[in-house]
């Protein structure tokens, strides 16, 4: 496979125009053009309809009562999402192209071509139909990162069932909430999971989640850790199931082994076309601010924006000569460059239950027909070199990961990566999940990207479905030195900058009254021109959809993202974290992201979490939790506190100095890598801890509590 380097760059004096900034008509025409990327069984009659929230009365307190917004894209059109991700590539003669490289944590490996995937997804669709799953039924998928997760997800899409993926490390309580909230008919789980070198039984969690009031009819169990039995024996024969299989907790009449269910079903299934606004999946937000919300994404609009933004950000679009004969990227193209598609090996490291993985690990890469990698395990099993072994083994070209993981790698390799890994296949890096601090950005680009590859620092949310703002791989800032003259705009590297909205979408930074804030000042990030992949509602609670996202600016049709942001003098966008992650010290509004970024520039600090605590004089004070490098573990608490307070004062200013700096083993995070700062405040102030159901490492709370107890 030929490695294609990025050699064309946008003209800094003539950037690609954003249709969303031209007119609503131009924006809709652009998305209609992008929709031609997909195969439609029937065309749409209306590209876009947006019924904005309208005042419909007042409540007893005199507050406006607003209608719930309605969003639709490509109404009247019909398509099948699974066909667009699998079958059409086979029909186009690319059935032998590798779709999926799988590596399990223990070292087992599998390869699926698009033809293989078509057969497996068809079998899975027939198996679900055999259990009585129909269009509109909900299927909760509680699986690790294994091929069956992708296959069953695509099978649900194929038959019109609504899938909801749940992180395999979540507790029974978190799973139970999702089973009950979705009203799921089927739950899919495993006998056990490989995690950090050990086998973790999870079927018990599934059983607990199915206790009580719910609509579960069947629990499908994928065999992952049990030794296989003798499938060649007749049913009922001793030895058909192994002793390990027999020890898995079982409810007769409800539970069914996946391998037995699929053993005698056809591997041919003719996909049915569904309306573009048919629900595709329900994804639950992280729950950092209360009970998780089940966001509903629909088939047509979601897949259109997902396919386009994946192609845009991960270098699949064609290069065309400009008026002077210089090759430039065609950022508005609705077709891909076949050579780029064939040469791409894409790896998004997220767990498949996270929205990033839905969009840029399942649907986006497969809709565009590229090869992708999925890895089951943790990045430090058996050691922190595992990811680099995976990159080398499969020739990964795109490495898309979370800032949290990058900072962990920085801590594991304080002197840089050893020169034992061949990472020459990497041509593009990306980050997602939270704002990335510049130090982590520079480290990954230097250590993995040879200080030369593009770095797409993407900003988007579960609510938006796919990317809202990001650098492009062909931006002038990534061009080799000397490509453009020194006075050219947008040619300086901007670590941690989301730069600008993707074509077809517009983002503003506003104050509370809806006025744009000047460059350099913090405001609220608002999407004032939405794209097709925007979530349509909150499952079972449309009023919460209104109150969470549209009550502030909804009458103008503007989506409140909930993140703070600022722009620089060139108009480029910096995301500063959640607006509720702002610390107000004596009237000064300080971003937790900026404080954390300052802390991790210190050589002793691997990770940092900044959060507000009450102060009788200043209103709030800054509390900083830090994860230290191995070399700094011997420092006393006072030494850590004073050195890091002085460092923050130097980096930001005395007003930002933390009142307390506490070294801890780990920080509590959601699966998307977001630090749950409210829990850090609650721990310090001795409050009752709020919702923890979305944490990936709940044990971090106990470890922090132990540290705090020793300080009393």
UniProtKB/TrEMBL annotation:
This is acetate--CoA ligase. Residues 594-674 form the AMP-binding enzyme C-terminal domain. It holds the Pfam family AMP-binding. Gene3D superfamilies: 3.30.300.30, N-terminal domain of ligase-like. GO terms for molecular function: ligase activity. InterPro entries: ACAS_N, AMP-bd_C, AMP-bd_C_sf, AMP-binding_CS, AMP-dep_synth/lig_dom, ANL_N_sf. The keyword Transferase does not apply. Residues 23-85 form the Acetyl-coenzyme A synthetase N-terminal domain. Its EC number is 6.2.1.1. Belongs to the ATP-dependent AMP-binding enzyme family.
């Amino acid at each position: 496979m030929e490695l294609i380097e990025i050699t064309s760059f946008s003209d800094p004096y003539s950037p690609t125009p954003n249709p969303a900034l031209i007119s609503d008509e131009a924006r809709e025409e652009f998305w209609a053009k992008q929709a031609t990327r997909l195969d439609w069984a029937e065309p749409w009659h209306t590209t876009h309809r947006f019924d904005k929230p309208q005042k419909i009365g007042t409540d007893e307190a005199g507050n406006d009562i607003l209608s719930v917004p309605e969003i639709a894209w490509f109404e009247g059109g019909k398509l099948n999402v699974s066909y667009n991700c699998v079958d059409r590539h086979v029909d186009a003669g690319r059935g032998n192209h590798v779709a999926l490289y799988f590596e399990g944590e223990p070292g087992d490996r599998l390869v699926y071509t698009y033809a293989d995937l078509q057969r497996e997804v068809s079998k899975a669709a027939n198996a679900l139909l055999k259990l009585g799953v129909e269009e509109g039924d909900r299927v909760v998928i509680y699986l690790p990162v294994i091929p069956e997760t992708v296959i069953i997800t695509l099978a649900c899409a194929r038959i019109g069932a609504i899938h909801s993926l749940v992180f395999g490390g979540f507790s029974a309580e978190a799973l139970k909430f999702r089973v009950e909230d979705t009203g799921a008919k089927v739950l899919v789980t495993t006998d056990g999971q490989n995690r950090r070198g050990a086998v973790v039984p999870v079927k018990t969690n599934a059983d607990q989640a199915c206790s009580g009031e719910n609509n579960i009819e069947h629990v499908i169990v994928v065999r992952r850790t049990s030794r296989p039995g003798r499938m060649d024996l007749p049913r009922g024969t001793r030895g058909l199931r192994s002793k390990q299989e027999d020890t898995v907790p079982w409810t007769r009449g409800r539970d069914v082994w996946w391998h037995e269910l699929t053993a005698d079903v056809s591997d041919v299934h003719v996909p049915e076309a569904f309306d573009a606004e048919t629900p595709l999946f329900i994804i639950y937000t992280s729950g950092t601010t209360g009970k998780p919300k089940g966001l509903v994404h629909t088939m047509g609009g979601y897949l259109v924006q997902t396919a386009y933004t994946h192609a845009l950000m991960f270098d699949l679009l064609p290069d065309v000569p400009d008026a002077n004969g210089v090759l430039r990227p065609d950022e508005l193209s609705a077709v891909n460059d076949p050579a780029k598609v064939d040469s791409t090996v894409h790896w998004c490291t997220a767990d498949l239950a996270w929205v990033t993985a839905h969009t840029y690990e399942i649907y986006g890469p497969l809709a565009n027909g590229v090869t992708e990698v999925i890895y089951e395990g943790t990045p430090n099993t058996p050691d922190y070199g595992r990811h680099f072994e995976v990159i080398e083994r499969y020739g990964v070209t795109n490495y898309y990961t979370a800032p949290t993981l990058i900072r962990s790698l920085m801590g594991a390799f304080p002197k840089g990566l050893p020169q034992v890994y061949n990472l020459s296949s990497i041509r593009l890096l990306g980050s997602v999940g939270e704002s990335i601090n510049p130090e982590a950005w520079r480290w990954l680009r230097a250590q993995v990207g040879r200080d030369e590859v593009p770095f797409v620092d993407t900003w988007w949310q579960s609510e938006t479905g796919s990317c809202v703002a990001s650098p492009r791989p062909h931006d002038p800032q990534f061009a080799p030195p000397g490509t453009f003259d020194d006075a050219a705009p947008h040619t300086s590297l901007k670590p941690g900058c989301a730069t600008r909205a993707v074509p077809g979408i517009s983002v503003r930074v506003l104050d509370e009254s809806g006025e744009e804030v000047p460059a350099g000042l913090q405001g609220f990030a608002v999407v004032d021109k939405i794209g097709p992949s925007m979530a349509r509602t909150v499952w079972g609670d449309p009023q919460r959809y209104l109150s969470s996202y549209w009550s502030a600016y909804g009458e103008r049709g503007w989506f409140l993202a909930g993140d703070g942001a600022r722009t620089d003098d060139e108009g480029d966008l910096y995301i500063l974290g959640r607006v509720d992650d702002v610390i107000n010290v004596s009237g000064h509004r300080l971003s937790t992201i900026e404080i954390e970024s300052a802390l991790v520039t210190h050589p002793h600090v691997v990770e940092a979490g900044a959060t507000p605590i009450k102060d009788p004089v200043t209103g709030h004070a800054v509390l900083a939790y830090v994860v230290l490098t191995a070399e700094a573990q011997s420092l006393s608490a006072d030494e850590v506190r004073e050195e890091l307070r002085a460092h923050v004062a130097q980096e930001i200013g005395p007003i930002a100095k933390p009142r307390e700096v506490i070294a801890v083993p780990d920080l509590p995070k959601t699966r998307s890598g977001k630090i749950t700062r409210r829990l850090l405040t609650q721990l310090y102030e001795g409050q009752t801890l709020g919702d923890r159901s979305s944490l990936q490492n709940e044990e971090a709370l106990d470890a922090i509590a132990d540290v705090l107890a020793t300080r009393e």
